[in-house]
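Data availability (excerpt). The following record was deposited with the supplementary files.
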Amino acid sequence: MSKIKFTKMCAGGNDFIVIDNREKVLPRGEADLARELCPRRFSIGADGLLLLEHSSQGSDFRMRIFNPDGSEAEMCGNGARCLARFARRQGVAGEQMTFETLAGRMEAEVKDNGGEVKLKMPDPRDIRLHIRLCLDGDVYEVHYLNTGVPHVVLPIESLESVPVNELGRKLRYHKEFFPRGTNVDFIEVESKRSLRVRTYERGVEKETLACGTGAVASAIVAFSLGKVARPPIEVHTRGKEILRIHFQAAAAKITNVYLEGKAEFAYEGEIEDA
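Predicted structure:
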């Protein structure tokens, strides 16, 4: 019976199963393993499976992330911050690092103090504001952009009253975003410097306690709509964590985007494979 070491990590309210797969230690396909390990109450439980692999593009390492439904995601902000800190501890990278993802090359800085990780995100693309969608006879004005993965952002007055799973699922599968679908972020502005977010995540197919790329998307949309001032912007997640979003805005372009917050080690264990 073989055993595979894993590390459980948390960031911003998301949790991940992290495996060093540089030596190809997985006993079966990555998608099957994610479907087996991520369900809560029946297994380890997590928002996703993170794999650390060798890079083929001259970076320090390659990141792969699989959702609980087995689909492979292009990127995950909080997952990337966890894997960056894991790579630092494994001796794969130094304090400053670059790594390969399906969304492109990323940069991160892992601070030795307090587990803070600052991640340089891809510049947002495909920004479309003021999209009017009809759902069950009601019209919603939403805003779309890609921050490594696609997001729809919907500003609302009260986060506590929004049916995140029901409405999020309808927007996630709306024909406007076919065939890939989208993540859905509901935002409530608290001040000119902060907002609260609840996210329905594609691949998880329900609300999660946080989403790094969603926090970035929410901050950019809130700024573009004039609801918050220039960065840094604090994003309060459902998991009670605070993520800090930095970016530069000039000539209607958003560049130099960073996601910053803590990435924590929770525990380590072994998976037995008969």
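Summary of structural features: The domain at 2-122+263-273 is CATH 3.10.310.10 (Diaminopimelate Epimerase; Chain A, domain 1).
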